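Re: weekly structure request thread

Next one in the queue (414 aa):
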Amino acid sequence: MKKLLILGAGTAGTMMANKLSRNLNKSLWEITIIDKDENHFYQPGFLFIPFGIYQPEEVVRPKREFLPKGVNFIVQNIEKIEPENNRVLLTNGKIVGYDILVVATGTVPVPEETEGLKGKLWYKDIFDFYTYEGSTRLAKKLNKWEGGKLVINLAETLIKCPVAPLEFAFLADAYFTEKGIRDKVEIFYVTPLSGAFTKPKATAMLSKLLDEKKINVVPDFYLQQVDNDRKVLISYDNKEVPFDLLVSVPVNKGDDMVEASNLGDEDGLNFIPTDKHTLQSKKHENMFVIGDATNVPASKAGSVAHFEAEILTENILSYIINEPMAASFDGHSNCFIETGYGKATLIDFNYETEPLPGKFPFAKVGPMDLLKVTRANHYGKLAFKWVYWHMLLTGKKLPVSTNMSMAGKLVETN
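Done, posted below.
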C-alpha cells in the first residue's frame, strides 16, 4: 500500500483530501492528513465578526465533518519533514512515512516580528482581525468604542487575502456612520504600498472609493516599531502615525516546521519554493505545495487555493503514472471586496493579466460586475459562505473556470 500524506487540514488540504480520495485507487493508496487543530475556521468570516455581520459560531466547524471516509486524520503538531527519508516527525515522537507529500500548512500572522506590536496594548487598543481571537475581541472593542483615530496598518504586503484590510476600512466607515459617530472617527489606511492595491486599474478604482469615504491613505510606510507609551507607529525612515485604536495586519509567515525542515525560501518567511505552474516543490520531486504555504507570486487567498487544487490533482495523478505534468496554474485569483452599505466590487486576475472591468462569471449575463460596486457582488460575497462549507471544501466543481477566462472582460484597444 502506497502512502499519500497531506500536511494541513485547512482550506487547501481539505480540498486535496476530497479530490484525491475520489481519484486514487483505494486498494493501492492510503491517504492521511495531519493538522494540529480539530476545528476548521471560515477565515473570510473573520472580517465580518468585528462589525456584528457574522457571529463567532458561524465561522467554526469540526474538520472531521469535511474529510472523506477512509482518510486518516491525525491531530498533532508537526515537528519537521525529513524529505531525504520520505517521512514526517510529529511532536509526540511518532513518525509518518509517505510516498507523495502535499504541504498545505498555510500562513499565520506573527505580530512578534514587529517591535512593540504585541506589547502592553495588545488586545486593549491594538488588535488584529485575521485570527478568530483577534476578530472576536475586536468586535467587543468596536461595540463600545466612542471614536478617535482608527489606524489600519499593513506591516508587510505579503499577506493572506490582500484585499481584506481595504474591506475593513470600507466596512468601518459604514459601521461608524450607521452608529452615528462617523464624525468622531478619523480613519487612516497606512500601507507599505504606494497606493491602495498592487494592480493599476484596481488601485485607481479603490483609491477613488477611499477618497469618497474620507479614509486617509498613508502610502510607502514601512513599519519598524509600535510605541505603546506614545501610541504611535514608527517607520524605518522615522515617519510617525499616531493612533487611538490600531487594527494591525501583522507580518505573515509560513509554519515553523518549514524552517525546522530547512525548506523555506531565502526571505526567511517560511514559504516553500514551488514551481508556479505545476505546484511541485523545487527541491523534492515527490513533494507538492498548495495554498498559502507556497512562494508562488499569486495572492494568498482561498480562491487561489481552489484553482490550485484543480491543477494539483491532475498533476499528482500524472506524476503517479510517470506522465508529464501537463496541467498548469496561471495564477488565477478572484476576490469580492466589500465596500460597505450592502455593496461590494469584484476583481479577477492572474499572473499576466491585471483586474479588468466586465462581467463575471458568464460573459453576457454576469451576474457579477468586475471593478464595479454593486449589491449583487455583496450578495455573492455573502453566498460564498454556503458555497465554502457545502461545495468548496468537499471538492465539488464550481461554475468558475480554473484558469482565468477573458470572456466578459473589457480590454482597452489602442
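The CA atoms of residues 108 and 252 lie 5 Å apart. The mean pLDDT is 96.
Next request, please.
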